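Hey, sorry to bother you again with one of my protein questions. A protein chain has come my way and I'm curious about its shape. I'm sending you its amino acid sequence along with the backbone structure tokens. I owe you a coffee for this, so here goes:
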Amino acid sequence: MKAPIYLDYQATTPVAPEVAAAMRPWIDANFANPHSPSSLGREAAAAIEAARGRVTKALGGSPGKLYFTSGATEAINWALKGAAARLPPDRRRIVTLATEHAAVLDCVEWLGGQGFEADVLEVRAHGIAIRELLAERITDRTGIVASMLVNNEIGVVQPVGEIAALAHRHGALFLCDAVQGFGRVDLPLETCDMVAISAHKVHGPKGIGALWIRDGVEIDPLLHGGGQEGGLRSGTLSPALCVGFGEAARLLDERREADHVHVGRLWALALDLLPGWTLNGSAEERYKGNLSLYRPGIDAARLISEVRQVAFSAGSACASGSGRPSHVLAALLLPDRAARSTIRLGFGRYTTEDEIAEAASLINSAANRQLNFAA
């Protein structure tokens, strides 16, 4: 049976063959604990440090330290809670955007219940932060500002350099969730204090991410125990996962321009083959491997179940089982009816033009059947 055409790159990406090959020896034979003083342990530790260097290089290489985590959710929670724990009493305000990932929003909400002031700002109708509102709400009482680089649902790119500069002007720390943008759009790392990334969004394995912390920034641990990661993050690291992340980062660095050109070509083709669909979010300030579209009268959930030959989604996979409506589409002031008619197509390195053409044909045919039946 033919495998479905995979167009859900924002949920996760296919593991690169080079990544799987690089991980295999560390699963089969080189299974030692990297924190053990044995020769096998030291060999595993050396492989992890090489992987750390590769990820840091792909990130941008500014002075700082990269700590491996179980994923971006842990990295974001650690950054926010660890930094908040060190805020002085007159700086207990945390500012973020309404379109952030649930890992940020739920964490900020939790901190709000711990005596911090949570300020979640609305965005413009095309999904970009309102600069005037940021300038008004980021004050000398602000301790942390958090913003995505690329939105996971609609693909828009936030002006993180400007937001970070505004945060620093008032003495606040800036956290960037760079999960969807890592290696795909420019990240002004030199303006960031903390950056969260994930391996499985860049053709690496699931179960590993990282938090980069700029030199001079101090945060409290989230996990306590052996302090394996620089005394700040406890837990035995997996050499296989770290090596996989490192190889994915190396490929990301090596293929950056080729991937960019390929994704741009797929974007243009998909838009051309999907007439009648309206784009959610800015058409200019965005990563083009993400297409969030709606078509009036379409039931997106029904469309996904009908077009089983294509793997795509209606929004964030992270919240698909939560029963929560899309807070991102709500923040765009998209009517409920349009939100229920929204699909998200994500593509990248291993997507072909033929797959885009076939998927568009299948989606259009199913959408037309729905509309004809309703008429």
